[in-house]
Amino acid sequence: LKRFELERYAGSMSPSSYASEVEVLKLDNTLIKPYRIFMNHVLDYEGYRFFQSSYDMDEKGTILSVNKDPGKIPTYLGYAMLILGALWLLLDKNGRFLKLSRFLKSQQVASFLLALILISPFTSSFANEGQIDMHGGKSAKIERQSVENPANKEDSKSAILERLKHLREYSKDHLKAFQRLQVQDFDGRIKPLDTISIEYVHKILRKDDFQGLNAMQVLLGIMFFPNDWRSVKMIYTSNKALRKLIGTPLDESRIAFRDVFDSRGYKLKNLVEEVNQKSPNARNELDKDVLKVDERINLVYTLFSAQFLRIFPS
Questions:
Q1: Which of residues 53 and 138 earns the better pLDDT score?
Q2: Whole-structure pTM value
Q3: Whole-number Å distance between alpha carbons of 231 and 209
Q4: Which of 32, 69, 197, 213 could form a cystine bridge with 24, CB 3.0-4.6 A?
Q5: Taking CA 298 as the corner, what is the angle to CA 297 and CA 302, rounded to the nearest 5 degrees?
Q6: Which spans are transmembrane here (predicted)?
Q7: Which one-letter DSSP state was computed for residue 23?
Q8: Buried b (16+ CB within 10 A) or exposed e, 182-211
């Protein structure tokens, strides 16, 4: 081991990733090759596979799991035969797929004419709604009532519900341009904001919508009304024992961001550290759910702090 690296989520002590810089040596200490082992990036050497498993308490040492599977090559051969069989089914002249293809081609002209007749009444209205005013004209303005509603300065449950109602009613038109914004994710890939919102919201909620809001509306709500969304029970949990530790009702599968904090700080901090010290094979269902909920909490924090909105690539 040459070096061990541990990265944490911004503003948190929870580890986001960790990696080991190693050197593979012969018995006479002759260097074979350097290698970097991290999540989903394993070291293969002479039939052995080395996985990044955990790390020492002092964060200076690493724990690797080792596996040698003699069935790997037969498995790959099986996958290759499966792919060849699928290709043969697709290309067989008398096969089901080509028969369906010939049938669809015969129906293509009729389908095209039918579709053209159906969509023609809506073409002009759709074109007008889809325009984006790049010069800040009328279509670029945000209605004041969608943000400055009567309950804007209140934190009661009724006020939050009122703001959610306004978000459902007035945000869709503004999202048409906003969701096309190109941003860089934390893996370095450029994606439209719509895709980023779906990925984040699905990880946090384990569903693609919430209270009648789509993923982009949820994202917009968190950005404009962070105090509201700290109290909204949206973070999914699957373990009653964890909800008991946090102090939320056992029969409610969702918790709020505010639920995991008290006067002493983040309630799961020590538990997350303990779980990360364990080998993955030694983790029980509670341990796994702790890590999943911790990841969701950090994703919500990323949305609150707008760290995901990387318009200018790094």
A1: 53
A2: 0.53
A3: 18
A4: 32
A5: 120
A6: 73-91, 103-122
A7: E
A8: ebbeeeeeebebbebbbebbeebbeeeebe
Closest CA to 197 of 313, 39, 303: 303
In what helix (H) or strand (E) does residue 38 lie, and over which residues does it extend? strand 31-38
Which DSSP helix (H) or strand (E) runs through 2? Answer: none
Cα angle 158, 212, 174 (rounded to 5 degrees) comes to: 95
pLDDT tens by residue, 275-288: 988 888 889 999 99
What radius of gyration, in Å, describes the C-alpha atoms of the chain? 26
Q: According to DSSP H, which parts of the chain are helical? A: 72-91, 96-119, 123-129, 144-147, 157-170, 172-178, 193-205, 215-224, 226-229, 240-246, 269-277, 285-304
In sequence order, the β-bridge partners of residue 49 are 44, 67
Q: How does the average pLDDT of the chain come out, rounded?
A: 77
Q: Give every CB contact of residue 95 below 8 A, 6+ residues apart in sequence.
A: 89
| Single-letter amino acid, residue 297 | I
